[in-house]
Write a structure and sequence with these properties.
The protein is α/β, with parallel strands linked by helices. It folds into four domains: about 55 residues, Phosphorylase Kinase, domain 1, CATH 3.30.200.210; about 230 residues, Rossmann fold (3-Layer(aba) Sandwich), CATH 3.40.50.740; about 200 residues, Dimethylsulfoxide Reductase, domain 2 (3-Layer(aba) Sandwich), CATH 3.40.228.10; about 130 residues, Barwin-like endoglucanases (Beta Barrel). Helix content is about 30%, strand content about 20%. The chain has a seven-stranded mixed β-sheet, covered by helices on one side. It has a six-stranded mixed β-sheet with strand order 26-28-27-30-25-29. The protein has a four-stranded parallel β-sheet with strand order 11-10-9-13, with helices on both faces. The longest helix is centred in the N-terminal third of the chain and has 19 residues.
């Protein structure tokens, strides 16, 4: 190979929300290097270890390159046999059509995982299939992750995607709860190189306050780390709100003309005193009052909370309180506070606002959000007979056996289906149950535009990347799979079909019609993005209210009836008698369950350990490396002890996304680093009653020495 054959490609890393810009050097069909793009206006040259895994994903010998069919062997085991695309697509379409004709549309279930939003083709074209099915049994990772954010955005701002984003580069005081962006690279917050941004915050005299049961990687950089009992964040937030209101520190500033409901809020939080909150949280009343004072008197302040508060029994209440705190202090829609994005393809204008509670799940009667049911009820909707029982399941880019509560029960339930199809490149803990697996192209074989994460970005930018490698003639992109299935299903059901153009055409239309498009000075279109492969800088976030609001009369009504009612649930709640509370944790080299099959990301010491406090370890007689049994109302798992002062006493922690020890999977490296699934001890019946989101943090557990 000659030196002249080397080519440098621009690419966004879409393995997490940071969407860092990359420079990928190739020689023929080989990747030579992957580096950060210093000219990218958002990431500024930063990358994390996951970026180099794009090479491993592309070349992974375990990744499926053609459709496969599950064939049961004489010994009871399953073998996945390659089949041609026409046979695979015809088989899947026939199964979908038959179950709709025999049992109705709700006999089809759909589950879409988190990587769906990392690939814009899946987002633009899934409707090519699902609009013909019209099932109410739709599920996604949203309800084990971020549903409280969407619901609160709908209630307060009028649209499910109107997320206030921390303006970290211009703030003075950052109050962060249940979030570890050093490990996650942000979450509902696209923020590349957050470590440098935090250091810049403190260097200019600002303050980062981290509230978490574990002294996380982010907490280690904080000005003030506050340990809190898992699941008690709502008490802290409500006590801060009460203190600000009682002390007369409310400053609505530019929000005063369109914020209503303050009187109802003041009355509702009266009982949430710092003293009572101290009993519930383990934080002194004096410390709570100090945080309230500092937040209210900062020149610019942000309150932000993520997984640790979203995935608990009061997740929606917490997210509402966070926004109320930002609003009461005039820090919403303000430089240095929480601000709204204005992306080039404006999903707030291009999508419906969303809705809540328009129908409920068949068995447990949990409410839908945006036409999706909580994932925690998927297993029972498969196993319990009756009208609307799921008989055929479609999964796309998801692994709910490892990512949803009581995953072991779902694992069993999947074998009761009449038929299952998965759009996925791997045979994992979920797809091993599929009758047909349809693998899409590798991430580097298709073009890319960050349709979802510009909505959450701390700066407005736009970037388009063509594919790095040509796909094989026999391969299909995920959007082509949806188109092909949609055509077949429509024909089978005798329905009209409207083919969609390629994703880049759809997105270019959205850009031209967007805020920087044909009616603007920027004149942004696909051609301009192709001329600027590192991306186009559209500027910092700017105040957009009240015009950006989608509520009636463009007002923010803080007194949401369902939320005020939920305060009574919190007040009447009782503590569990279980000796330990289980929380999750993340690592910068992890990304849910699907990043464990790449050697460079799993190297080093075992990360799937049960983290315990030294005081608890000494009392129980546990030493590092000892096997213990973690048991809950849902089940039990066995893990090795890691003794760490990071975790507060009475709390234990398991990482999310492990449990690669099921027979029949084809992920060689992941199987060698199997770990255990924390969701085998989370309970599908343990959820946030206000939103329906799964409660997988703060789970009551017993921990005992495991028998050898």
């Amino acid at each position: 190979m000659s030196e002249q054959q080397k080519v440098i490609h621009h690419r966004a890393c879409h393995l997490c929300e940071a969407i860092c810009g990359l420079l990928i050097e190739t020689q023929d069909d080989q990747i030579i290097s992957i580096k950060g793009d210093p000219d990218d206006p958002l990431s500024r040259g930063h990358i994390c270890p996951k970026a180099v895994a794009l090479q491993d994903i592309h070349s992974d010998p375990d990744r499926l390159r053609s459709p496969v069919k599950r064939v049961r062997q004489d010994d009871g085991s399953d073998e996945f046999v390659p089949i041609p695309w026409p046979e695979a697509l015809d088989t899947v379409a026939s199964a979908l059509v038959k179950t709709v004709q025999d049992n109705g549309v709700d006999s089809v279930g759909v589950y879409l995982g988190n990587p769906t939003v990392h690939n814009y083709g899946m987002m633009t074209h899934q409707g090519s299939l699902f609009r013909h099915l019209r099932t109410r049994n739709r599920f996604s990772a949203t309800s084990v992750d971020q549903l409280p954010h969407h619901l609160v955005s709908l209630w307060l701002f009028g649209h499910k995607l109107l997320f206030p984003i921390p303006d970290i580069d211009r703030t003075d005081y950052f109050l962060m709860l249940g979030a570890n962006p050093i490990a996650s690279n942000g979450s509902i917050w696209t923020v590349p190189d957050v470590r440098k941004r935090i250091k810049s915050l403190t260097a200019r005299g600002g303050k980062l306050v981290v509230v978490d049961p574990r002294r996380t990687e982010t907490a280690s950089l904080s000005s003030d780390y506050i340990a809190i009992k898992p699941g008690s964040d709502a008490w802290l937030l409500l006590a801060i709100i009460r203190t600000i209101m009682v002390k007369g520190w409310v400053r609505l500033r530019n929000l005063q003309d369109f914020v209503v409901g303050l009187e109802a809020i003041e009355s509702a939080v009266e009982r949430f005193t710092p003293e009572l909150a101290s009993e519930k949280t383990g934080i002194s009343a004096e410390h709570i009052e100090q945080v309230a004072y500092d937040f209210a008197h900062a020149d610019a302040a942000i309150c932000y909370g993520r997984m640790g508060v979203s995935t608990q029994r009061y997740g929606a209440l917490c997210q509402w309180a966070i926004q109320v705190l930002n609003i009461l202090t005039g820090n919403l829609d303000r430089e240095g506070g929480s601000m709204f994005t204005l992306p080039a393809v404006d999903q707030v204008e291009n999508t419906t606002p969303g809705g809540f509670g328009r129908h409920s799940s068949r068995v447990s009667q949990l409410p839908e959000f945006d036409r999706e049911l909580p994932a925690s009820v998927l297993a029972e909707e498969i196993t319990i007979e009756g009208e609307g029982q799921i008989r055929v399941l479609f999964t796309g880019a998801g692994n709910p056996v490892l990512s949803t509560p009581s995953g072991h029960k779902l694992d069993d339930a999947l074998e009761e289906l009449d038929f299952m199809v998965s759009l996925d490149p791997w045979i994992n803990e979920t797809t091993r149950h599929a009758d047909i697996i349809l693998p899409p192209t590798s991430p580097l074989e298709h073009d890319h535009y960050d349709l979802a994460f510009h909505v959450n970005a701390m700066r407005n930018t736009a970037r388009y990347n063509p594919p790095i490698f040509e796909k094989a003639d026999s391969a299909l992109h995920d959007w082509e799979i949806f188109e092909a299935l949609g055509q077949r299903v429509a024909e089978g059901l005798g329905m009209d079909r409207k083919p969609l153009p390629a994703p880049e055409v759809i997105i270019d239309f959205g850009r031209k019609a967007g805020p920087y498009g044909q009616a603007s000075a920027e004149q942004l279109d696909l051609a301009m993005l192709k001329r600027n492969p590192s991306g186009v800088d559209l500027g910092p976030l700017k105040p957009l209210l009240p015009g950006r609001l989608k509520t009636p009369a463009q007002q923010i009504d803080l007194a949401v009836p369902a939320v005020l009612h939920d305060l009574e649930r919190l007040l009447n709640d009782t503590d569990s008698d279980a000796p330990y509370s289980l929380i999750g944790r993340r690592h910068v080299r992890d990304c849910n369950s699907w990043m464990h099959n790449f050697r460079r990301l799993v190297k080093g010491k075992d990360r799937c350990t049960l983290m315990v406090n030294p005081v608890d370890a000494e009392r129980e007689g546990w030493c590092a490396g000892d096997d213990v049994l973690i048991a809950s109302s849902a089940g039990s798992v066995r893990a090795k002890v890691e003794v760490s002062e990071e975790i507060m006493a009475g709390v234990v922690s398991l990482p999310h996304g492990y449990g690669h020890n099921r027979n029949g999977t084809k992920m060689t490296i992941a199987n060698d680093h199997a770990g255990v699934s924390c969701n085998d001890v989370t309970d599908a019946r343990y959820f946030d009653a206000l939103s329906g989101n799964a409660a997988i943090n703060g789970v009551p557990v017993h921990v005992t020495a495991a028998e050898s």
